[in-house]
Structures are given as structure tokens and as C-alpha cells.
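Same chain as my last thread, 428 residues:
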Amino acid sequence: MPGLSGLFLERRWTRERIEAFQTERLRALVRHAYSRVPYYRRLFDQAGLSPDRIRTLEDLRKIPFTTRAMLQALPEGDIIARGFNPQTLVVHRTSGSTGEPFSIRRTRWEDRLLQAYRLSVLFRFGLRITDRRAAVVTRRLVGTPLYMRSGMLRYEEVHCLLPAAQILSRLRQIQPDVLRGYPGTLSYLAGLMTDSDRERIRPRLITTDSEMMTSDMRARISAAFQARVVDFYDSHEFNMIAWECPSSGLYHVSDASMIAEVISDGRAVEPNREGELVGTALHSWAMPFIRFRLGDLVTRGPDHCPCGVQYSVVTGVQGRVADRFELPGRSIHPYTLVSSLLAQGRWIRQYQIVQERSDLVKVKLVALPGASPSPEAIAGVRQVLGERLGKDVQIEVELVALIPPGSNGKFRPYYSMLTAPSGSFSHQ
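reply #2:
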């Protein structure tokens, strides 16, 4: 079982020390998974791979990828390590945007360890033990740690699917010092806040996670709450994956808790190239995740951050790989449409871009309070998107009063109906 060694000290480590730690953990994890987890034994045997051949981080690429769909199809006895009682494990269920929820299981020790690491990142951004914290999310906290029961780091959850007036009323009561929420939810609330709300809801720090953070969302949240906004990249499988560097704006990867690869066509990409995030969890032994494909499209950053800390870096998270728009004769990621859309429509408060057919994209727009976009303004949006999508793609633009979140409380600014949602961008 992994211990606390290194988990909170890696900020001071050299790159060589970080990689030595990862290598040590990887060797032990692979031996454990092969000997105790039937799924990984079969995976290694079918690949003709012995655990003894995984000795360096470079050797990790010899291990075949694992996907959520592959694990969903198996009984729990195939994916939980022998010696762990499934009835005593902490269970985290994904939101099930694929229609098939997935359960991640950890020991209570593993779960608390990853939570503690998440807190250590928050402390770097100024969290105090006396702070009141509020989270506008869907899931409920699994258990209440002793420190919370003792009055430290107080934490309350407000369900994001409640009516906006109820959420704001609850936040006025809590008066959080630190506020957490989905970017889409907090951005929507920002547009509805009254002067009374701004007087009483005055967090010192806001953290966002679990869905795509766009530049317009960030601007609205920061302006409405008058607080610093820090974006976290996380998932149910790994908890913390990366967080924004306060000086560079790049995302520091959580190298002490996972190994992150950025892959395209089965191979690691060069810096500043896009690829899919593939993760190996270094502290999940009850239910290991080795070379697990998250399905998220990210851009690999430079070898280290300009701030001097030696973490791995990604420059940002673009969204789901599965959300690419397959157009006649070509493919694009809808993230590339956003800058053109917002540059043309400075009156836009919220947007959603949905591909319904290979030759049909529908766009819903919500205007800023007091804005009344003219037919010419709508036509301008259609024109700039048409320049990016091409003449063979029909574009329908609709002005609406509200774009609600999905049934899981998360808001997707763009997606394609031609590909089944991967559910992988399931930030925790």
C-alpha cells in the first residue's frame, strides 16, 4: 500500500526526483495489479508482457490502454484487487452521461489521501483552516472527515440543480470564503446576482472544475464575485489531475499522484501538440487505473512551467476527444470556433454549439442583460461560423432566454450528436 511519502513534498523536488518517485511507485503498482487483479493479468498475458519488463517510465508505453467501456463490461471481481472487501470500499459513481454510470472504488485510506492532496493544492492558493467553504455541485460528500467535524475547513454542498434563487439564498447564508463550482453553473449565477448578493457572497477564492472553462465564463465569474478564479482539472478516476499555475496560467500536473501521458495515434505528442490524456494512478491499489484513457483532449505544455516548479505541464483542456465535429471531408474540434464566435458577438452571455448532422450545426445564444441583438448581429454570428465550418455545413442560430445544464448539472458549451458522449470529461 502506498504511504504519504513524497505526496506533499514534491513541490521542492527536481524533475529527476519526481520521475524517480513515479518509477518506484509504477513498478510496485504493476506487480500488484498483475498478481491481484484478474483484468490486468489477462491484459499483460495477452500482450505477452511480464511485469518485470516495466522498469522505467519509458516502459509504460508497452502496456496496452484501458478504457472506461472495457472496465464497465466486467464484474467487480475482475477489476478489484484480491484482498480488498468490495463492501468496505468507498464508492464514487460517475454522472453517467453515457447512460452507463461507472463506479470507482477506493479504500478509505486511499480516498482520504487523495482528498488531502487536493487540500494541499488549495492551501497553496491561500486556503485557511478557519475558512468556510461552499460547493455548488451535484454529488454529496462521501463521509465527513474528522477535521470537518471538529470545525476546521468547514464545507457545505449546495445542489447545482436547485433553482438559481435558492442557490444564491443558500450562499448568502453560508457566506463562503472559498467557493467551488462548475464553470457553467457559476457563470449562470453570476448573471443573476443582485447587489444584495454581491454584498453577502464575497469569496476570497473561487475554484472551478468538472467541465470546460471558457474565457467568457471566467470573465463573468470573476467580475460578478470580485474574486480570483482558479481552474482545476480533475476526474473521478484520479481526483486531482492538474491545476492552474498562479503565475503562468499553465496547468501543473499532479505528478505525485499520477503519471499523465498526452497521446495521439498511440504515441506521445511533442510539446505544444494536442492529444488525449492517458493516466496511471499511483495511489489507487484497490481498483488500479493503469494507462487509462480519459477521452479528454489536452495540449501538452513545455517540459516545465516558467515559474520554476518542476511539474509536468499541460497548457489547457480543450474538451472531449469524442466531441470533435466530423464534417464532410474533414474534422475539427469545436473549441476552435469559440474565439471567432465571441469576437463577433460581444453581446453574448452564454452559448452552446451542437452538431446534429455532418452538415448541420445548431447554435443557441443567450444575450447579456439589456442587450437586444439585431437580425444583422445574428447574421454576423452565422457568417463567422460559416467561414470556419465551410459552405457545405448549414448553420442555425437561435436566440434563447436560457440554456439549462444537463441532467447531471454540468453544462456543455459544445458537443456532437454524431458520436456517443464518452462521459470522460467527468471532472470531480
